[in-house]
Amino acid sequence: MRPSRRAPDELRAVSLERGVVKYAEGSCMVKFGDTHVLVTATLEERLPPWLKGQGRGWVTAEYGMLPRATLERTRREAASGKQGGRTVEIQRLIGRSLRAAVDLEALGERQITIDCDVIQADGGTRTASITGAWVALADCISWMKNRNMFKNGGGNVLRDNIAAISCGIYQDTPVLDLDYAEDSEADTDANFVMTGDGRIIEVQGTAEKTPFTQDEFLKLMALAQKGVGRLVELQKMAIA
Fold it and tell me: Which residues bind phosphate (predicted)?
């Protein structure tokens, strides 16, 4: 029995609430159970210097956790003067995941910055961030379309959905969407980032205790495909 009493292939309760920040071009409050992340998308008419003059845009991300997002207070990274390695790794993952869905040439010489702020953490903050970030990004691109900022209407700027989910082996059983109680005790922990049509963007998998077999990996992949499929359905409902 899972600590949450969910079935092995059952997601936590997921919600995607759009338009939660007045000033942002796109925003989403995403909740995977007790993991809550506020995501905003900001359009800027500027680019990193190394991209100027190339006729294409950029999508980047920043990620952070509020001090009491966890059981004990964590120090703000700004107070220490630098970001931790985990933070840098996660925000790079978010950025490259979203870029896989965007036609950067059609975007033009503009940058969209995605900010993911974890309000409450109970496992799966990176997967929740990616899933909610796609909704905020979609709203930002819709905001641009409504202002005729694209040539030919910008119909294919956002080419597909992007969602992410965690899977793991908990007490010898492959399970979907780990919360902290499972994540901290799992034999294997993996994160899958996938497109709406089922293609893989990134897989992060680690054997925490016992190495896992190819058969176990395929079972995790099957769970991930099911979970991402459901998340994509929720994304489509959210932006409809």
Answer: 86, 124-126
Q: Does 212 score more than 70 pLDDT?
A: yes
pLDDT attached to residue 5: 95
Please check if 56 is assigned to a binding site: no
124 annotated binding-site participant: yes
User: Which residue in the block uniquely carries the two structure tokens 């905003």?
Assistant: 40
pTM for the whole structure = 0.95
Q: Which CATH number characterizes residue 225's domain? A: 3.30.230.70
| DSSP character string of 180-206 | HHHHTT-SEEEEEEEETTS-EEEEEEE
Note the pLDDT of residue 154.
64
Q: Does residue 6 belong to any structural domain of this protein?
A: no
86 assigned binding-site residue: yes
The yes-or-no verdict on residue 153 having pLDDT over 80 is no
Amino acid occupying residue 31: K
| 3-class DSSP state of 56 | coil
The reply to whether 198 sits in an annotated binding site is no
Q: Which domain holds residue 59?
A: 14-239
Note whether 77 and 2 are within 8 A (CB): no
CA 202 vs CA 93, 100, 183: distances in Å = 8, 10, 19
For the segment 95-99, the average pLDDT, to the nearest whole number, is 98
Task: Show the tokens assigned to 145.
Answer: 């379309």
Alpha-carbon gap, residue 237 to 240, rounded angstroms? 5
Helix pair 125-146, 85-99: axis angle to 10 deg = 40
Q: How confident is the model at residue 205 (pLDDT cuts 50, 70, 90)?
A: very high
